[in-house]
């Protein structure tokens, strides 16, 4: 299966369990992989034969910068469901949500979750 990659889109949201996360917000990085058949687009050079990256970006931005969730797992689920609902050409999607600066003690680069969801039927 062919894949579309959108790597580390940086968005600002208010997700998290701690009160300061709801008040101050923080940056999130979102990566998306969409499995689909890209041959029709490659052969025709027609945008309508593929998944429009700008629309995927707007969808991710709306979810990350919209409703507040406590868990980045919930953010990832919302993005995956929206992609599968919005783009019938998508066979599956993998979503990675990275929280670069969570308010927890320790030395680390970031925390992240990654989920894969497939179209059923």
TrEMBL record:
<keyword id="KW-0456">Lyase</keyword>
<dbReference type="InterPro" id="IPR006156">
    <property type="entry name" value="Dihydroneopterin_aldolase"/>
</dbReference>
<dbReference type="GO" id="GO:0004150">
    <property type="term" value="F:dihydroneopterin aldolase activity"/>
</dbReference>
<keyword id="KW-0289">Folate biosynthesis</keyword>
<comment type="similarity">
    <text>Belongs to the DHNA family.</text>
</comment>
<comment type="function">
    <text>Catalyzes the conversion of 7,8-dihydroneopterin to 6-hydroxymethyl-7,8-dihydropterin.</text>
</comment>
<dbReference type="InterPro" id="IPR043133">
    <property type="entry name" value="GTP-CH-I_C/QueF"/>
</dbReference>
<protein>
    <recommendedName>
        <fullName>7,8-dihydroneopterin aldolase</fullName>
        <ecNumber>4.1.2.25</ecNumber>
    </recommendedName>
</protein>
<feature type="domain" description="Dihydroneopterin aldolase/epimerase">
    <location>
        <begin position="4"/>
        <end position="117"/>
    </location>
</feature>
<comment type="pathway">
    <text>Cofactor biosynthesis; tetrahydrofolate biosynthesis; 2-amino-4-hydroxy-6-hydroxymethyl-7,8-dihydropteridine diphosphate from 7,8-dihydroneopterin triphosphate: step 3/4.</text>
</comment>
<dbReference type="InterPro" id="IPR006157">
    <property type="entry name" value="FolB_dom"/>
</dbReference>
<dbReference type="Pfam" id="PF02152">
    <property type="entry name" value="FolB"/>
</dbReference>
């Amino acid at each position: 299966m062919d894949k579309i990659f959108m790597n580390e889109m940086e968005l600002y949201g208010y997700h998290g369990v701690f009160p300061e996360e709801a008040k101050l917000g923080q940056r999130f990085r979102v990566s998306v992989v969409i499995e689909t058949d890209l041959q029709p687009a490659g052969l025709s050079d027609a945008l309508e034969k593929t998944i429009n990256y700008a629309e995927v970006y707007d969808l991710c931005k709306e979810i990350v910068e919209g409703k507040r969730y406590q868990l980045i797992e919930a953010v990832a689920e919302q993005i995956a469901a929206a992609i599968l609902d919005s783009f019938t050409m998508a066979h599956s999607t993998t979503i990675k949500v990275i929280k670069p600066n969570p308010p927890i003690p320790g030395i680390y680069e970031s925390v992240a979750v990654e989920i894969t969801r497939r179209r059923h039927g």
